[in-house]
Specification:
about 250 residues; alpha+beta; Phosphorylase Kinase, domain 1; seven-stranded antiparallel beta sheet; about 20% strand; globular
Protein backbone atom coordinates (compact mmCIF):
# COMPACT_ATOMS: atom_id res chain seq x y z
CA UNK A 1 0.00 0.00 0.00
CA UNK A 2 1.32 3.44 -0.96
CA UNK A 3 1.21 6.57 1.22
CA UNK A 4 -1.41 8.11 -1.10
CA UNK A 5 -3.68 5.09 -0.70
CA UNK A 6 -3.17 4.97 3.07
CA UNK A 7 -3.83 8.69 3.48
CA UNK A 8 -7.21 8.29 1.75
CA UNK A 9 -8.19 5.56 4.21
CA UNK A 10 -6.91 7.08 7.47
CA UNK A 11 -10.19 8.81 8.33
CA UNK A 12 -12.15 5.65 7.51
CA UNK A 13 -9.81 3.71 9.84
CA UNK A 14 -10.41 6.19 12.67
CA UNK A 15 -14.19 6.02 12.16
CA UNK A 16 -14.22 2.21 12.07
CA UNK A 17 -15.55 2.13 8.49
CA UNK A 18 -12.98 -0.30 7.02
CA UNK A 19 -13.41 -4.04 6.84
CA UNK A 20 -10.89 -6.17 8.70
CA UNK A 21 -8.70 -6.81 5.64
CA UNK A 22 -8.27 -3.18 4.65
CA UNK A 23 -7.89 -2.06 8.26
CA UNK A 24 -5.03 -4.52 8.66
CA UNK A 25 -3.35 -3.28 5.45
CA UNK A 26 -3.52 0.34 6.60
CA UNK A 27 -2.22 -0.52 10.07
CA UNK A 28 0.68 -2.50 8.58
CA UNK A 29 1.57 0.45 6.35
CA UNK A 30 1.41 2.88 9.30
CA UNK A 31 3.69 0.61 11.34
CA UNK A 32 6.45 1.11 8.77
CA UNK A 33 5.74 4.67 7.63
CA UNK A 34 6.58 7.55 10.01
CA UNK A 35 4.81 10.10 7.80
CA UNK A 36 1.45 8.31 7.79
CA UNK A 37 1.82 7.44 11.48
CA UNK A 38 2.28 11.14 12.24
CA UNK A 39 -0.79 12.01 10.17
CA UNK A 40 -2.87 9.46 12.05
CA UNK A 41 -1.63 10.90 15.36
CA UNK A 42 -2.60 14.42 14.25
CA UNK A 43 -6.07 13.27 13.16
CA UNK A 44 -6.65 11.55 16.50
CA UNK A 45 -5.50 14.64 18.41
CA UNK A 46 -7.82 16.82 16.34
CA UNK A 47 -10.78 14.53 17.00
CA UNK A 48 -10.05 14.46 20.72
CA UNK A 49 -9.75 18.25 20.86
CA UNK A 50 -13.16 18.61 19.21
CA UNK A 51 -14.70 16.05 21.56
CA UNK A 52 -13.30 17.88 24.62
CA UNK A 53 -14.48 21.31 23.49
CA UNK A 54 -17.71 22.78 24.80
CA UNK A 55 -19.51 23.37 21.52
CA UNK A 56 -23.04 23.52 23.00
CA UNK A 57 -24.95 26.78 23.28
CA UNK A 58 -27.97 27.34 25.48
CA UNK A 59 -30.41 30.02 24.36
CA UNK A 60 -30.97 32.76 26.99
CA UNK A 61 -34.27 32.94 28.91
CA UNK A 62 -35.26 36.25 27.32
CA UNK A 63 -35.30 34.57 23.89
CA UNK A 64 -38.06 32.18 25.07
CA UNK A 65 -40.01 35.14 26.38
CA UNK A 66 -39.72 36.96 23.06
CA UNK A 67 -40.87 33.89 21.13
CA UNK A 68 -43.86 33.35 23.43
CA UNK A 69 -44.79 37.03 23.22
CA UNK A 70 -44.75 36.87 19.42
CA UNK A 71 -47.20 33.92 19.32
CA UNK A 72 -50.84 34.88 18.70
CA UNK A 73 -53.11 34.61 21.73
CA UNK A 74 -55.97 32.10 21.43
CA UNK A 75 -58.93 31.09 23.54
CA UNK A 76 -58.50 28.22 25.96
CA UNK A 77 -59.42 25.00 24.12
CA UNK A 78 -62.01 22.60 25.49
CA UNK A 79 -61.00 19.21 26.82
CA UNK A 80 -62.65 17.53 23.82
CA UNK A 81 -60.77 19.74 21.41
CA UNK A 82 -57.51 19.00 23.16
CA UNK A 83 -58.13 15.23 23.00
CA UNK A 84 -59.20 15.42 19.35
CA UNK A 85 -56.13 17.41 18.46
CA UNK A 86 -53.93 15.00 20.36
CA UNK A 87 -55.44 12.02 18.53
CA UNK A 88 -55.02 13.64 15.13
CA UNK A 89 -51.50 14.69 16.00
CA UNK A 90 -50.63 11.16 17.12
CA UNK A 91 -51.97 9.70 13.87
CA UNK A 92 -50.03 12.19 11.76
CA UNK A 93 -46.90 11.61 13.84
CA UNK A 94 -47.24 7.85 13.40
CA UNK A 95 -47.55 8.20 9.63
CA UNK A 96 -44.63 10.59 9.52
CA UNK A 97 -42.52 8.33 11.70
CA UNK A 98 -43.24 5.36 9.43
CA UNK A 99 -42.09 7.37 6.43
CA UNK A 100 -38.99 8.60 8.22
CA UNK A 101 -38.04 5.10 9.34
CA UNK A 102 -38.45 3.81 5.78
CA UNK A 103 -36.24 6.60 4.45
CA UNK A 104 -33.59 6.00 7.11
CA UNK A 105 -33.54 2.25 6.45
CA UNK A 106 -33.33 2.77 2.69
CA UNK A 107 -30.50 5.25 3.13
CA UNK A 108 -28.67 2.82 5.44
CA UNK A 109 -28.97 0.10 2.78
CA UNK A 110 -27.64 2.47 0.13
CA UNK A 111 -24.68 3.48 2.29
CA UNK A 112 -23.85 -0.17 3.01
CA UNK A 113 -23.89 -0.99 -0.70
CA UNK A 114 -21.73 2.06 -1.48
CA UNK A 115 -19.19 0.88 1.10
CA UNK A 116 -19.23 -2.59 -0.48
CA UNK A 117 -18.62 -1.00 -3.89
CA UNK A 118 -15.55 0.84 -2.59
CA UNK A 119 -14.25 -2.31 -0.88
CA UNK A 120 -14.68 -4.30 -4.11
CA UNK A 121 -12.89 -1.55 -6.05
CA UNK A 122 -9.97 -1.63 -3.60
CA UNK A 123 -9.78 -5.44 -3.80
CA UNK A 124 -9.63 -5.26 -7.57
CA UNK A 125 -6.55 -3.02 -7.46
CA UNK A 126 -4.53 -5.79 -5.84
CA UNK A 127 -2.30 -7.76 -8.17
CA UNK A 128 -4.23 -10.41 -10.13
CA UNK A 129 -7.68 -9.28 -8.97
CA UNK A 130 -8.64 -6.71 -11.62
CA UNK A 131 -10.05 -8.98 -14.36
CA UNK A 132 -11.21 -12.56 -14.87
CA UNK A 133 -11.40 -12.01 -18.61
CA UNK A 134 -8.77 -9.67 -20.07
CA UNK A 135 -9.84 -8.20 -23.39
CA UNK A 136 -10.45 -4.87 -25.12
CA UNK A 137 -13.11 -6.50 -27.30
CA UNK A 138 -16.66 -6.05 -26.05
CA UNK A 139 -17.74 -9.10 -28.06
CA UNK A 140 -15.34 -11.19 -25.96
CA UNK A 141 -16.11 -9.68 -22.56
CA UNK A 142 -19.92 -9.75 -22.75
CA UNK A 143 -20.26 -13.46 -23.76
CA UNK A 144 -17.88 -14.42 -20.95
CA UNK A 145 -20.57 -13.47 -18.41
CA UNK A 146 -23.17 -15.77 -20.03
CA UNK A 147 -23.97 -18.66 -17.70
CA UNK A 148 -22.09 -17.07 -14.81
CA UNK A 149 -24.85 -14.57 -13.98
CA UNK A 150 -28.62 -14.60 -14.42
CA UNK A 151 -28.31 -11.56 -16.66
CA UNK A 152 -25.07 -10.66 -18.44
CA UNK A 153 -24.20 -6.98 -17.95
CA UNK A 154 -24.10 -4.76 -21.04
CA UNK A 155 -20.59 -4.10 -22.31
CA UNK A 156 -19.77 -1.17 -24.59
CA UNK A 157 -16.45 -0.10 -26.10
CA UNK A 158 -15.67 3.52 -25.19
CA UNK A 159 -12.04 3.51 -26.32
CA UNK A 160 -12.69 6.13 -28.98
CA UNK A 161 -14.20 8.37 -26.28
CA UNK A 162 -11.12 8.08 -24.06
CA UNK A 163 -12.18 5.21 -21.77
CA UNK A 164 -10.45 1.94 -22.70
CA UNK A 165 -12.25 -1.34 -22.04
CA UNK A 166 -9.77 -3.75 -20.46
CA UNK A 167 -11.97 -6.65 -19.33
CA UNK A 168 -14.48 -7.92 -16.79
CA UNK A 169 -14.85 -10.13 -13.75
CA UNK A 170 -17.30 -11.51 -11.21
CA UNK A 171 -17.48 -9.71 -7.88
CA UNK A 172 -19.64 -9.64 -4.77
CA UNK A 173 -21.70 -6.64 -3.61
CA UNK A 174 -24.11 -6.85 -0.67
CA UNK A 175 -23.66 -10.61 -0.59
CA UNK A 176 -24.65 -11.08 -4.27
CA UNK A 177 -22.56 -12.09 -7.26
CA UNK A 178 -22.62 -9.33 -9.88
CA UNK A 179 -20.67 -8.36 -12.96
CA UNK A 180 -17.89 -5.78 -13.02
CA UNK A 181 -16.78 -4.19 -16.29
CA UNK A 182 -13.33 -2.61 -16.10
CA UNK A 183 -12.20 0.50 -17.97
CA UNK A 184 -9.06 2.60 -17.83
CA UNK A 185 -8.64 6.35 -18.19
CA UNK A 186 -4.94 7.14 -18.42
CA UNK A 187 -3.60 5.51 -15.20
CA UNK A 188 -6.99 5.47 -13.47
CA UNK A 189 -9.12 2.32 -13.18
CA UNK A 190 -12.92 2.54 -13.43
CA UNK A 191 -14.96 -0.38 -12.11
CA UNK A 192 -18.51 -0.42 -13.43
CA UNK A 193 -20.61 -2.75 -11.26
CA UNK A 194 -23.91 -3.88 -12.79
CA UNK A 195 -26.70 -5.71 -10.97
CA UNK A 196 -30.23 -6.78 -11.84
CA UNK A 197 -32.66 -5.63 -9.14
CA UNK A 198 -36.29 -6.63 -8.85
CA UNK A 199 -38.72 -3.82 -9.67
CA UNK A 200 -35.90 -1.30 -10.05
CA UNK A 201 -37.11 2.02 -11.43
CA UNK A 202 -35.08 4.31 -13.70
CA UNK A 203 -32.94 6.60 -11.57
CA UNK A 204 -31.15 9.75 -12.64
CA UNK A 205 -27.40 9.61 -12.11
CA UNK A 206 -25.91 11.04 -8.93
CA UNK A 207 -22.30 11.23 -7.76
CA UNK A 208 -21.15 10.71 -4.18
CA UNK A 209 -17.71 10.50 -2.60
CA UNK A 210 -17.08 7.55 -0.28
CA UNK A 211 -13.70 7.03 1.43
CA UNK A 212 -12.03 9.31 -1.09
CA UNK A 213 -13.47 7.58 -4.19
CA UNK A 214 -16.14 9.01 -6.48
CA UNK A 215 -19.16 6.81 -7.25
CA UNK A 216 -21.63 7.57 -10.05
CA UNK A 217 -24.77 5.51 -9.66
CA UNK A 218 -27.88 5.25 -11.78
CA UNK A 219 -30.58 2.78 -12.85
CA UNK A 220 -31.98 2.03 -16.30
CA UNK A 221 -33.78 -0.82 -18.08
CA UNK A 222 -34.05 -2.98 -14.97
CA UNK A 223 -30.36 -2.69 -14.07
CA UNK A 224 -28.52 -0.74 -11.38
CA UNK A 225 -25.06 0.70 -12.08
CA UNK A 226 -22.23 1.91 -9.84
CA UNK A 227 -19.14 3.37 -11.52
CA UNK A 228 -16.33 3.89 -9.00
CA UNK A 229 -12.88 5.41 -9.51
CA UNK A 230 -10.38 7.89 -8.13
CA UNK A 231 -11.05 9.99 -11.23
CA UNK A 232 -12.44 13.47 -10.65
CA UNK A 233 -16.21 13.74 -10.36
CA UNK A 234 -16.38 15.56 -13.71
CA UNK A 235 -14.47 12.84 -15.58
CA UNK A 236 -16.47 10.07 -13.95
CA UNK A 237 -19.68 11.90 -14.89
CA UNK A 238 -18.36 12.13 -18.46
CA UNK A 239 -17.73 8.37 -18.46
CA UNK A 240 -21.26 7.66 -17.24
CA UNK A 241 -22.82 10.00 -19.79
CA UNK A 242 -20.89 8.37 -22.63
CA UNK A 243 -21.87 4.88 -21.41
CA UNK A 244 -25.55 5.80 -21.20
CA UNK A 245 -25.44 7.43 -24.64
CA UNK A 246 -23.83 4.31 -26.13
CA UNK A 247 -26.53 2.16 -24.53
CA UNK A 248 -29.33 4.30 -26.00
CA UNK A 249 -27.74 4.32 -29.44
CA UNK A 250 -27.02 0.60 -29.28
Amino acid sequence: MTCDEAEILLHALLDGELDAGHAREVEEHIAGCPRCAALLKDYRAMGQAMADSDLHFTAPAHLRQRVEAALPSTHTPSRRAVLKGFAMGSAVSALAATGVVAIVLRRADEQRIMSDVVSAHLRSLQAGHLTDVLSTDQHTVKPWFNGRLDVAPPVVDLTAQGFTLIGGRLDTIDGRAIGAIVYRRRTHVINLFVAQTANVEPRTATIETVQGFNIRRWSARGLSYWAVSDLSADELADFGNKFETAMRVG
